[in-house]
Inverse folding.
């Protein structure tokens, strides 16, 4: 019976058999909370683009004016996006129903912009966790930590009608998302809750900076090297350059929308050329060239150096 993020079920404590307790250790060691990178122009632009997109959805009547609960992924970009959303007063104060609660949620809660946050864990900096401990009377009726099988339950996510905002490691021009594996091999992070929420959300959004490593890596490639979320689950992609609303579009329309609105200008010509080289059909892939970006990164360390003639023989 969870119908809103603030609905409480079960008991308020975890019961443990005293016979299983060997001892209780007191310590003054601080928590090992991670730090978030300061906001920069790119993350700020992504956050503002997300906020403006959601405001447009409210004005168009596709989201209720009272807004809906929000799920957010983990990391610097996700933290920045939440912060920007909280600053946009055209978005009403909202509830959060997510897996991991980050610094931005706590800051917005203190400002009255987040009304309630439900998750399964806190992933906050040491400064923020000290603030929570020091002000438990304020936070105790605004934060709820649930077992993961409830916080990440796909049916509950669907029931609550969430907007899910998660971070992409890379995306391809047809809307498939890689959240976890660098060049398809090296694991950067686990899939986490993005899979649970993306496929069940009322609206699924992915954010990413358009490039990495000083522009040598494009976040947008012809074909993702590892697939976590298929084009069928991905409705919107947002970078610092703009918004690609992929709803109701064919593969070719999605590709043009992503290239036009999200790709870094340095990589637009290469991806336009790839699209033109694709075999005619519903999804115009070119299997000789689809991993050229990744192969060039491995060979020279810079995706800018892709030469299609080398692959398309």
């Amino acid at each position: 019976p969870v119908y809103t993020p603030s609905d409480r079920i079960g008991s308020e404590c975890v019961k443990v058999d005293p016979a299983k307790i060997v001892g209780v250790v007191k310590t003054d060691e601080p928590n090992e909370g991670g730090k978030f990178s300061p906001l920069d122009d790119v993350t700020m632009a992504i956050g503002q683009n997300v906020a403006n997109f959601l405001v447009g959805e409210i004005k168009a009547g596709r989201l209720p004016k009272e807004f809906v609960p929000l799920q957010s992924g983990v990391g610097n970009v996700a933290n920045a996006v939440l912060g920007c959303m909280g600053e946009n007063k055209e978005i009403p104060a909202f509830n959060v129903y997510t897996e991991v609660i980050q610094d931005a949620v706590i800051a917005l809660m203190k400002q009255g912009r987040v009304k309630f946050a439900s998750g399964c864990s806190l992933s906050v900096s040491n400064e923020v966790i000290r603030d929570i401990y020091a002000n438990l009377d304020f936070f105790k009726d605004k934060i709820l930590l649930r077992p993961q099988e409830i916080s990440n339950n796909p049916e509950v996510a669907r029931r609550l009608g969430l907007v899910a905002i998660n971070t992409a490691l890379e995306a391809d021009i047809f809307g498939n998302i890689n959240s976890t594996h660098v060049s398809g091999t090296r694991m950067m992070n686990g899939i986490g809750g993005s899979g649970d929420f993306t496929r069940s959300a009322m609206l699924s959004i992915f954010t990413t900076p358009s490039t990495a490593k000083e522009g040598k890596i494009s976040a947008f490639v012809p074909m993702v090297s590892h697939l976590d979320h298929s084009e069928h689950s991905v409705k919107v992609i947002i970078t610092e350059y703009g918004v690609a609303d992929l709803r109701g579009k064919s593969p070719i329309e999605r590709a043009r929308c992503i290239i036009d609105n999200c790709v870094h200008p340095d990589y637009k010509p290469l991806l336009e050329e790839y699209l033109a080289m694709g075999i005619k059909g519903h999804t115009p892939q070119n299997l000789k060239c689809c991993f050229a970006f990744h192969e060039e990164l491995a060979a020279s360390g810079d995706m800018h150096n892709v030469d299609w003639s080398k692959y398309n023989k």
Q: What stands out?
A: Residues 41-59 form the longest helix (19 residues). The mean pLDDT is 92. Residues 51 and 88 are 7 Å apart (CA to CA).
